[in-house]
Amino acid sequence: xxxxxxxxxxxxxxxxxxxxxxxxxxxxxxxxxxxxxxxxxxxxxxxxxxxxxxxxxxxxxxxxxxxxxxxxxxxxxxxxxxxxxxxxxxxxxxxxxxxxxxxxxxxxxxxxxxxxxxxxxxxxxxxxxxxxxxxxxxxxxxxxxxxxxxxxxxxxxxxxxxxxxxxxxxxxxxxxxxxxxxxxxxxxxxxxxxxxxxxxxxxxxxxx
Length: 208
Fold this sequence. Notes:
6 helices
């Protein structure tokens, strides 16, 4: 079994990542498996910079390779925002539905043909404080005028995916995994690193 620590405290991300990685032979550990769960400060100005910071920081606390994700929503009418601030948009203590409301309010006067947006994800793989590789995934869409669906998390209820004809929150978990930015990045990780000698020959202890 190939073991990887997933550097996120977001349970929705953990479920999505484990669902993709488990069939590829990975045992996914969360940050709660670390003795020191102190958050790594995300001071980067890009998704890649923050993914690298988290992967490298947490990889100094475990013998296992660490896979860190940084992702968010880029809205063209907001100049690419909220971008790296997606999880803190509108204030640090808002709920996901409250963030969606703040974003919809900001776009209240934006015409439908100017509500283009995308979800972007960058994954960084690190060990011993050094990034080994990064993997990205992007999915295009538009911002709805009101939330739809009860699945997913974050901005999923207001992100319309035209090829599916539904909001991300209206997709089943399996459907979203096939088309999402995170699913694309994870499959690139599996294709490019999942069966390399790094994972085939390393034998990591199960205790951290």
